[in-house]
Each structure stands twice: as structure tokens, then as C-alpha cells.
Amino acid sequence: MEEAFGSPTSIPTLLSRCPASLSPAQARRHTARRRALRASESFSSGTLVALPALPPPLPAPPEGRSRHLLNLVVAARLEVAALAAAAATRAPGGGDAGMDSRLDQETAQWLRWDKNPLTLASVKQLIAAGNTEELQKCFSARMEFGTAGLRAAMGAGISHMNDLTIIQTTQGFCRYLEKQFSDLKQRGVVISFDARAHPASGGSSRRFARLAATTFISQGIPVYLFSDITPTPFVPYTVSHLKLCAGIMITASHNPKQDNGYKVYWDNGAQIISPHDKGISQAIEENLEPWPQAWDDSVLNGSLLLHDPSASINKDYFEDLKKYCFHRAVNKETKVKFVHTSVHGVGHSFVQSAFKAFDFVPPEAVPEQKDPDPEFPTVKYPNPEEGKGVLTLSFALADKIKAKIILANDPDADRLAVAEKQDSGKWKVFSGNELGALLGWWLFTSWKEKNQDHSALQNLYMLSSTVSSKILRAIALKEGFHFEETLTGFKWMGNRAKQLIDQGKNVLFAFEEAIGYMCCPFVLDKDGVSAAVITAELASFLATKNLSLSQQLKAIYVEYGYHITRASYFICHDQETIKQLFENLRNYDGKSNYPKTCGRFEISHIRDLTTGYDDNEPDKKAILPTSKSSQMITFSFANGGVATMRTSGTEPKIKYYLELCAPPGNSDPEQLKKELDELVSAIEEHFFQPQKYNLQPKGE
């Protein structure tokens, strides 16, 4: 047997021993061996040969069954060996002499380790076809594990989400947790998943979750694995509620249908931040070879280490949510009608339950989008942040039943978009900043009604990210509570909120402009379920005062100052182009300095959180954490405008956020909007230069 799997010269030696006269079964086995030899020889010469399929197996005679099975194994292993030889052989004359050595090693390793028949077959086909370009896409670089975990398209290879990369990631995460927590085998982890699936590669969120659970249980670590789909915020809630060491959510949130992701929470109930991402990434690299039981998810069956938290967490989450219901009597009697869409995701039943917890009549669900569907058939992008394009069916249903408010969750129900029917008959879709202003005002107003002691304000906090509206800062300055700004993303706000809570502070609210809201600090992440029902209570309460959400938003701006915002993005798939664009801003007009103007607008302050530069600080060093792996520059202007340009951590986008802030009493928002429009045009023309960099605008 060693002879068969050793050096290539052993293959012809083995085949030369075949007798001249063969039975049908022997002939089939001999064909398989010759097929492997031919493939090996063609790979060595640099010529790739397509291999014909073998005929189906013939039954072996009873007396020779064991030898028959042994020969089948030999034939199959010879074929894999030949394919591995292809991956390890450079083809002359193509590109950099064919596949580079690292690609050769990765593909050969993949053939040894992958046991998913669909992804394994796809890699074999690419090798047999000599499709170096597609192999490069699959194996060019391992997915980078960052603070957002992993997110990529599902498919074969180390660049994609699939069974093998899930196993490898979980093995690394498991080993890292073992080093961090001496009581890991007592406390355990929680794992849940959304409804995504990719039949072509056999991947799905449910399967990935089971493989992750298998990895932990094979090491004697308890796993709380949800038996069915849940919203993402249920994972951080479970980590905190059950005092677990970590949580994993298999989801790609609002990304296109082919994507999936692996999102990680630490034992504090918040998303991981550095240095955990680097430690986990290193541990993954050290644990790439699948462990003995890695592929055997039958170990979950009957395991005493496996727990299903679904029933208890569902009950406890909604009991905790009830504490944030301030006007139960109003909710029972409200005449306001609501439409809800989960955009083919997981949110439907959970939002229905949230409404019941607040004594509402449940919202009317958009029937075409109510049930989970990984194809997202009714939308181009399953992201409510895109606005009216995602809400077309919601508008139609709302108009039909005369509903005034639309609530839309993204597919993993951690975000919320809201639209309101205006007196003009048109629909207004609130921006993330506008809804953040409304929810911040509402939660503070409700808190103030229950807390008449003015000294309690000293312990009250609200948070938002650097690219979000500064409206909470304006409210805090006037009302006397604390406001803090963090870097972009709930990983920062969640961890800061936990620090403040541990210090005895009361974190009332946090939000980011990308329609993410933390209305209840028992979840230290954005939560679209709680945000939906709290928005419904706000709308119902305002209706008793004959006010709409839009009218209340205007009242907030009149009292605290208008904050006019604009956010959009350009699409760019070339990382080098993105880097060049930002480097040109740091070396404007060919000089080693930043721009002093943008069109007619004078720049008064620059903060670069990629390089750590801040010209407002005495030592020119930024106070907020910096990251060389992402691009982010903020320009402040003499007219009170602020513009931030940054790259996305999960999508091929360069995003920009602009805001003009006016002091209280300025009642001319139209003039502010006009000036902001001019500033947006100047930023796009002078800083983005879309024609020069071949950038694709949003919506094209």
C-alpha cells in the first residue's frame, strides 16, 4: 500500500502488475488506476486532462468482497493523490510559471482535509480544468479574522465560508478560549444562526452552527446551541444572561445572499475588540488541520454537553423587555396601525412576541417577506438601510390597510428602519440619525418621568459613534447628562457601555447612523427587535398628543438645534485604488500635508484615525484608538460642517458622512440643507474624484 501512495514512480509499477486478462470488476479498478496515472503524468508535463467519470461500481463476489472494497479504496485514493500532484506541480508558461507554491500547497492541503463532497468536487474540477484564475479566487488569501469575525461569500477554498473554514476557525477560537478561561468547561459557549443557505456548496448557517458546536463538544466544552433561527442580539443576551465565556452568531446580516459570516462575542456580552481578534487569528493558523471528530456532527446526538436555550431565553428576553414598556395603557388602546417586514429574515415571530409583551395588537406582516428565505427573492439587496427600494411591498400593504408606520428589520433583526406616512400622502423613510434623535429623546423623556432627582443625571450616559449625528451631544449639553463618542461600530459602544455599567453608571441609549440602536442595555449590541417595539410605543404615545414622528423630530431640532445629515458611499472593489485615494488626501496637491480647503469650504480641523493624526491635540496625536488596517479621515469645516470618509469593514464601499449643526433657535433648515448639498458636491468632486478612481456611485 505504501508503494501506491508514495512517489509517482510507484504508480506505474503498481499498474504494470495488472494481468492481461481482466474480469469486468477488475477492468473497472484497472481503469481507475490508469485514470489516476494519466492525470498524474499530464500534471507533471504541464498539460491538464479532463478525466471521464467511472461507471457505477459492480457487485463483488461474496468470497472477494473484502479485497474488492480494498481495491476501491486504493483506486479512490490514487485519484486524490493524482489531483494533489496537480496542485503541487507548476505548469510552465502561464503567468508566474503557473500556480505559485503557496497556492499549490493550499490546494493540495484542501484535497486532503475537505470532506464536503460539493466543495471538494468543485476544487477537483478547477484543478482538472487548469482554471488557475478561479483557484486563485478560492485560495489567494485566507479570510482575515477581525473584530467583526468573518464575512465572505460561501463556496470552496480558504477565501470563502464553508464547512472546512468553519471548522478551522472554531478550532482556533476554541484553543484561544481555553487559554483565556480556566473555567471554560464549566461555563461553555452559545451558538446561534440565521436562515442563510448556499445549496451549490452545501453550506448553510444551520450547518455551520452544528459544525462549530461539534468542535467545542469534542473538546468537552458545553454548548448552548439554539435549535432554530434567532435574531443576532439573542446571542449577546444569552452570553450575559447565562454568564457564558463567549458567543458565536452565524450570519451575514444584510449582505447579499451568497455571503455568510461568523460573529463573535466575549464573556462581557459585547463584540470582541483588539487584541482578541489577533489572538484568535493566530490560534486559527495554529489549528488548521481538522481534529479527529471535526466532521462528525453525530457527536451532538444525545450529548450531555449540548443544551438548547431556546425556550428559556425566549421567555427571559421578553420578560426583560417588558421593563422598557412605559405606557402599557396607551399601547392597548392605540389606533395607530403598524406594518412589519423581516425582509425574508428571522425577525417576524420575535417582533410579534415583542408587540405582545408591550400589550400591542401585533403588526401586520408583509406576507411575501414574512418567512425566512435565503434567496431574498423580492429585493435586490436585503438591507432596509437602502430605503424605499427594500420597502416597496411594505408601502403597498400599508396603503392597503391604512397603516401609518412601517417597521423593517434586516435579515438578522439587529437593525431597524422606520417609515411614516405624511399628510401629503408620501412616505418618509427616517435616516438612522433621525431615528436616533427620536429614540434618544424618547428614552430620556421616559427616564425623566420616573426620576425626579436631578442628581441622578450625573450617572446617566448616552453613546454614539464618530460618524453618527451629534444630536445626542446637543441634548446632553442642555439636559445635563453625559454623552460619549466612540469609534464606528457597536463593538466599541458595547464595550464602553459595559465599562460604564460596571462603574455603576446608567447607560440609557446608544446608536449608530447605520440604523443600529441599543435601547435596552441588557443587550450590549444593536437590537432591531427591542427598537421596533419601543418605536411603536413612541409613535402611539405621540398620537395621543396629535403628533407624528416627523413633527416630534422637528420639535427636537427646534429645541436642541438642527442637525442636518447626509450619508452615502461609492463602490470600489480594488483595495489599491482605495489606498491611493486616501494617500492622495494625506499628500494633497503632491505635498506631504492635508488639504486646507474643499472647493469654497475652509477646513478648520483634521483627524486621521488611520495614521493617528489630530491637529486639534497639542501633540497632534489622536485620542481615539487608531487602526492602520482601515481608512478613516474626518474633516471639520469653518461653517460648522463635519465630513468623515471611511472604508467599510465588510463591504467594498468607501462611505462618507456629513453633518451641519446649527445652534438652538435657527429655524431655517432649508438654508442648512442647501449649504450641506453644496458641501456634499464639493467632497465628491475634490476628494472622491469618482471618474479618476473609477468609483461606482450608490444605486447604480
UniProtKB/TrEMBL annotation:
<dbReference type="GO" id="GO:0005634">
    <property type="term" value="C:nucleus"/>
</dbReference>
<keyword id="KW-0313">Glucose metabolism</keyword>
<keyword id="KW-0119">Carbohydrate metabolism</keyword>
<keyword id="KW-0597">Phosphoprotein</keyword>
<keyword id="KW-0963">Cytoplasm</keyword>
<feature type="domain" description="Alpha-D-phosphohexomutase alpha/beta/alpha">
    <location>
        <begin position="143"/>
        <end position="288"/>
    </location>
</feature>
<dbReference type="Pfam" id="PF02878">
    <property type="entry name" value="PGM_PMM_I"/>
</dbReference>
<dbReference type="InterPro" id="IPR005845">
    <property type="entry name" value="A-D-PHexomutase_a/b/a-II"/>
</dbReference>
<dbReference type="InterPro" id="IPR016055">
    <property type="entry name" value="A-D-PHexomutase_a/b/a-I/II/III"/>
</dbReference>
<dbReference type="InterPro" id="IPR005846">
    <property type="entry name" value="A-D-PHexomutase_a/b/a-III"/>
</dbReference>
<dbReference type="InterPro" id="IPR005841">
    <property type="entry name" value="Alpha-D-phosphohexomutase_SF"/>
</dbReference>
<protein>
    <submittedName>
        <fullName>Phosphoglucomutase-2</fullName>
    </submittedName>
</protein>
<dbReference type="GO" id="GO:0008973">
    <property type="term" value="F:phosphopentomutase activity"/>
</dbReference>
<feature type="domain" description="Alpha-D-phosphohexomutase alpha/beta/alpha">
    <location>
        <begin position="316"/>
        <end position="421"/>
    </location>
</feature>
<dbReference type="InterPro" id="IPR005844">
    <property type="entry name" value="A-D-PHexomutase_a/b/a-I"/>
</dbReference>
<dbReference type="Pfam" id="PF02880">
    <property type="entry name" value="PGM_PMM_III"/>
</dbReference>
<dbReference type="GO" id="GO:0005829">
    <property type="term" value="C:cytosol"/>
</dbReference>
<dbReference type="Pfam" id="PF02879">
    <property type="entry name" value="PGM_PMM_II"/>
</dbReference>
<dbReference type="InterPro" id="IPR016066">
    <property type="entry name" value="A-D-PHexomutase_CS"/>
</dbReference>
<dbReference type="InterPro" id="IPR036900">
    <property type="entry name" value="A-D-PHexomutase_C_sf"/>
</dbReference>
<comment type="similarity">
    <text>Belongs to the phosphohexose mutase family.</text>
</comment>
<dbReference type="GO" id="GO:0006006">
    <property type="term" value="P:glucose metabolic process"/>
</dbReference>
<feature type="domain" description="Alpha-D-phosphohexomutase alpha/beta/alpha">
    <location>
        <begin position="432"/>
        <end position="559"/>
    </location>
</feature>
<keyword id="KW-0479">Metal-binding</keyword>
<dbReference type="GO" id="GO:0006166">
    <property type="term" value="P:purine ribonucleoside salvage"/>
</dbReference>
<dbReference type="GO" id="GO:0000287">
    <property type="term" value="F:magnesium ion binding"/>
</dbReference>
<keyword id="KW-0413">Isomerase</keyword>
<keyword id="KW-0460">Magnesium</keyword>
